[in-house]
Structures are given as C-alpha cells and as structure tokens.
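Lab channel / #folding
Pinned by the channel admin:
"Please post every new chain as: sequence first, then the structure tokens as a reply. Keep commentary short and put observations after the output so the thread stays searchable."

First post following the new format, from NK:
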Amino acid sequence: MQSRHLTARQIRAVLLLFFALLSLLFFWRPASPVHVTGLHKDDISRSFSGTGGPRVAKVSMLYGASTLYERAVRSHRTHNEQFNYPMHVLREEITGGYWNKPSYLLALVVLELAKPAAERAEWLM
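Reply from TO:
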C-alpha cells in the first residue's frame, strides 16, 4: 500500500482555494437594506446595506505645519459634511516613528466596536 503525501505547494493551493471560497461566501451574503433619511443636507432619502449609523468614517494624520496638508484636510472636511461622514484626524505623534498610524487605527477600531452595532461605521478610510 502506497502512502501519498501532499507537497507544500499542493497544501498552499488547497488553503488558498478554501479561503477564496470562504471570502466569497462572506462578501456575497445577502444583506438587508437600511433606509436612511435626514442624514444629508439635501434631505434626499438614501438606501444602503449596513448599519443605521454612518457607513464611512475618514481617518487622517496631520502633524507639523503645512498649509498644503491643511487645505487637503479642509477639502475632506467639506466632503464629509456633505455626506455626513465622521472625520478623525491625528494631530500629534502618539508613539515613536512608524507605529503612529497602526496605533491610531487600532484605537479607532476599538472605539467603533465599543459602540452598539446599529451605530458603528462599516468602513474606516
């Protein structure tokens, strides 16, 4: 009787296929649409799948004096007000070097998860 062993390449291919199928099931699941009114200045009703809270929250980092970056943040703020998106801006370093962005994003994810499910943002951009 022969014993057949899978090679590392075959194992990776099987795992990749498994996770691809799992992600398709996760992302293509049917979602119930939520009807939202009164969130926008134009008072037009909009429907989207997701929570009752804001769907998108924007995250930026800006420290140091730069008028170009300040103007960019102002343009984002105008867009956020138009679509009622919350905006989070890190204005000073919270850790040294590279870890500022991951630390800030992790803190915001934890804050979103602490909210009731109906008030959570679906995306941090």
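NK: Strands lie at 33-36, 46-49, 56-61, 87-90, 123-124.
TO: also worth noting, The helical segments are 8-27, 67-83, 100-114.
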